[in-house]
């Protein structure tokens, strides 16, 4: 699967790409998604943080690949037929930055129920750093954590790790 994501879909508000890691459901805004690739070999980088798997080639451009499971503190998992790499442009202002996120599986480009998600109001009370999450939504009644893309990378920097986005 080497599907370009529809520009019409990316321009609508509330449209997300839903995916799974282990038994958890997540979503990302579809606007920064460039394409979805099947799993492929990744060239490792020396002395990289554990979540930075290495580089893949995308039409002659080097793309750093981040294992989202590891970035989120989950145990590693071997690739299987459902594994995907979602190529993203996380910062619209910095068009030269692209990164791939390795995911267990991708479900669909869709809108959440009620086309919205909301922050967890109890986050502060519970001591949860929600920097990675822009809100919690539902799809077909199931909870989906809507991730804040730049928050994923900011969280890794807070942990004192090397930034994963660099000009290629």
UniProtKB/TrEMBL annotation:
Signal peptide: none annotated. Pfam families: CheW. One of its GO terms (cellular component) is cytosol. PANTHER family: CHEMOTAXIS PROTEIN CHEW, CHEMOTAXIS SENSOR HISTIDINE KINASE-RELATED. This is Purine-binding chemotaxis protein CheW. InterPro entries: CheW, CheW-like_dom_sf, CheW-lke_dom. It comes from the Bacteria. Residues 13-158 form the CheW-like domain. The lineage of its organism: Bacteria, Pseudomonadati, Pseudomonadota, Alphaproteobacteria, Rhodobacterales. It comes from Roseivivax halotolerans. GO terms for biological process: chemotaxis; signal transduction.
